[in-house]
Write a structure and sequence with these properties.
Length: 700
């Protein structure tokens, strides 16, 4: 009965969405008309590079979105990625306000299981991976004050990047020649004692350009025990060796001396006081400190061979310490070294007289963590050490992709990748036995796709691809002991099928529709025992849905953006850790409906106003689907103006979030405290009420 009801609701949502799309989709007569118009106007080329094979967007057989600088910057606080990416269909964000756990991002269900950080999604900035070989991603060092462009691939993409590739976020920060030479100073302030200052300077001299951005943020937070301080520095130095060769160095530094964690509340605690922290979070002063430095070097050469060679090397060091909001083995620390090299070669040639564009390359990445864990008493005293080990992950991979133009309109794409991933633990604490060990995975990923241009700026595509995702070191934690590997956790593997259409009518209305169906075997899901999070494999999961994005410039002044996601995420052949039959249940933490709309007015001279609405459908907090999280509508508004005084400019901006002061949850800790009664589980992190921010930017 439950499955029938879920299926009926899902069908209704699809019917509604298809009704919307049918109004937009061109008939055969319209296609011919648009084709004629397109040929008269000429192609507008928007190149994407996140799939590694650089190509025109309308030749790309994948759900790819591009977010440019105005969407990232205009009237935004530039604290978290959701500000810029909310209007990208298929993306779901949680945990915006807990800087100790960081933003959680999921796409098509990948990434939803992480209680902190991001899993299953590849993150990279300026060619430097922010995703480790074991699949963990941290985004606290991403500097949105420097970001110039973000490309998003939705859906499994292991053929491009291997492990942890349920999707890709490829962020490019500004170069010295991307902005007018000069300097910019930003000062922000707002609710909950929010304060931020950022200064940026850039310039060009001969063949060399440089840019540097420094920012510092403080916030006390809307809950107890949620104060945070963070400093970021990002710099790029580029030098053109000649017209076809270029060298770019990137340096990023994060200093996060305080990020408190208020913990998850039970429903009764939320009703009593949604702004409180848990008792133990206060007593133990839970939170984290982080210092990280990253150096990257990119070399591009279009002269050494007929095609173009790109080589990226990087080194990152991260020093991390955290007190979790419960006693026991709850104080963790690690010292991490992450380094590697990626190289690729792209060339255009011919096959059987038809144009062929192909890319091939190799990745070698290594991660080494010196990890410690300590026992903490209920009074906050360290009573002993429970873990001392070195975790090493090495990934070696080769890949190749090609696009063959079968006709002037029809492209055939084929790609494959081979990954060798070795995870090992060297136990340095032998009092309780030797928990050393290793796991090795050899995986082959593939993708095949067709792309057909209905017109120069209208495309339909179909893709079938495979992906794999290994458990991270954290997810390999053994519930029977403090160290070593859990032998019962295996990688999850996905088969992705997708069809989509995208296009641009005139120069005002763009649309992007994708239908997907994904089957995942051995889905990795979390559960908690004695406050700690452990992981297990579900038998199988099914994910299917629709993603629709519309961007309509109604006039010079008015623009409407809409992103609708309708999806069904289902557990199959799975019994949870309490013996509940979860077959047919929804995967926890994933709403079946997401709908974001933005109406924006743009006046002369930089004046603007934007109203955003966000609907998040209901979802469940655990595998057994016993706790339903209610749906919510959230509204926000941003306004701003710019003034010119001589050769200097001043921009004023302000924003209101949660305009209607709704009660909602900014984060739900999936499957938390699974060993407790349902009413005693600390799932909920309430979001703030109505909050305000304002700022000024001086460009000189």
């Amino acid at each position: 009965m439950k499955e029938e009801a879920q299926g009926h609701g899902y069908s209704q949502r699809l019917v509604i969405a298809f009704a919307i799309v049918s109004v937009m989709m061109p008939s055969s007569e319209l296609v011919a008309q648009v084709a004629d118009e397109g040929e008269a106007i000429g192609e507008i080329v928007l190149e994407v590079t996140s799939p590694r094979l650089a190509r025109d967007l309308y030749d790309t057989p994948a759900a790819v979105s591009v977010v440019d600088a105005p969407a990232i910057r205009q009237g935004q606080q530039r604290l978290q990625l959701d500000e810029s990416l909310n209007t990208v269909p298929g993306l779901f964000f949680q945990n915006r306000y807990n800087f100790a756990q960081n933003l959680r991002l999921s796409t098509r269900g990948f990434g939803a299981r992480a209680p902190f950080g991001i899993r299953g999604i590849r993150i990279q900035v300026d060619g430097i991976p922010y995703t480790l070989p074991d699949g963990q991603s941290q985004i606290d060092a991403i500097d949105l004050d420097s970001a110039q462009r973000i490309e998003i691939i939705r859906g499994p993409s292991s053929v491009q990047y291997g492990n942890a590739a349920g999707g890709v976020l490829d962020i490019t920060t500004a170069r010295g020649d991307d902005l007018p030479p000069g300097a910019r100073l930003r000062l922000d302030g707002g609710s909950d004692d929010y304060r931020k200052a950022a200064i940026q300077g850039n310039g060009v001299r001969g063949d060399t350009s440089a840019i540097a951005t420094l920012s510092w943020m403080n916030v006390n937070g809307h809950r107890e025990q949620s104060e945070a301080e963070k400093g970021l520095f990002n710099a790029r130095l580029s030098h053109e060796l000649d017209s076809e060769r270029e060298l770019t160095a990137t340096f990023n530094a994060l200093h996060n001396p305080k990020a408190q964690d208020p913990g998850g509340l039970t429903l009764s605690q939320v009703e009593d006081d949604p702004n409180q922290a848990t008792f133990m979070a206060n007593r133990l002063d839970s939170g984290q400190t982080v210092n990280q430095q990253t150096l990257g070097l990119q070399y591009q050469d279009a002269a050494v061979l007929p095609g173009e060679v790109t080589v990226n090397t990087f080194y990152s060091h991260r020093d991390f310490a955290q007190q979790l909001p419960f006693p026991g083995a709850s104080r963790v620390a690690y010292d991490r070294h992450f380094y590697g090299i990626s190289s690729q070669y792209q060339q255009g040639s011919e096959l059987a007289g038809r144009p062929l564009t192909w890319v091939t390359g190799a990745d070698v990445h290594r991660q080494s963590d010196d990890r410690r864990r300590y026992q903490v008493s209920p009074m906050g005293e360290i009573t002993g050490q429970t873990q001392a080990e070195t975790q090493n992950a090495t990934n070696v991979a080769v890949f190749a992709q090609g696009d063959l133009a079968l006709t002037d309109r029809l492209n055939f794409s084929l790609g494959t990748r081979w990954d060798h991933l070795r995870l090992s633990v060297d136990d340095d604490r032998l009092e309780d036995g030797d928990d050393s060990g290793s796991r090795t995975f050899r995986e082959v990923s593939g993708v095949v796709g067709l792309s057909y241009r209905l017109a120069p700026r209208h495309q339909v595509y179909a893709t079938v691809g495979t992906a794999f995702e290994s458990p991270t070191f954290t997810e390999f934690a053994n519930p029977s002991g403090a160290g070593g590997f859990n032998p019962d956790v295996e990688p999850q593997k996905a088969l992705n099928r997708e069809i989509g259409v995208r296009g641009l009518w005139g120069n005002s209305l763009s649309y992007d529709l994708a239908l997907f169906s994904i089957r995942v075997k051995d889905e990795i899901l979390p559960y908690e025992l004695d406050g700690r999070t452990f992981y297990e494999n579900a038998g199988e999961t099914r994910r299917q849905g629709l993603e629709l994005g519309i961007d309509w410039d109604i006039s010079y002044n008015w623009r409407v953006t809409s992103a609708l996601t309708l999806a069904d995420y289902e557990l199959r052949d799975f019994t949870d850790e309490q013996g509940n039959n979860a077959n047919g249940n929804e995967i926890p933490g994933l709403p079946s409906t997401l709908w974001v709309n933005e109406v924006k007015w743009q006046g002369a001279g930089g004046r603007f106003a934007a109203l955003e609405s966000q609907y998040i459908g209901e979802f469940y907090a655990e595998n057994s689907n016993q706790t339903e999280v209610s749906d919510v509508w959230l509204l926000g508004v941003r306004v701003g103006d710019r003034f010119l005084i001589s050769d200097q400019s001043f921009s004023l901006y302000a924003g209101l979030r949660n305009l209607l002061d709704e009660d909602y949850f900014a984060n739900v800790r999936i499957n938390a405290n699974a060993d407790r009664a349902v009413a005693d589980r600390g799932y909920f992190e309430p979001g703030p009420g109505r909050t305000f921010y304002a700022g000024v930017e001086w460009s000189f």
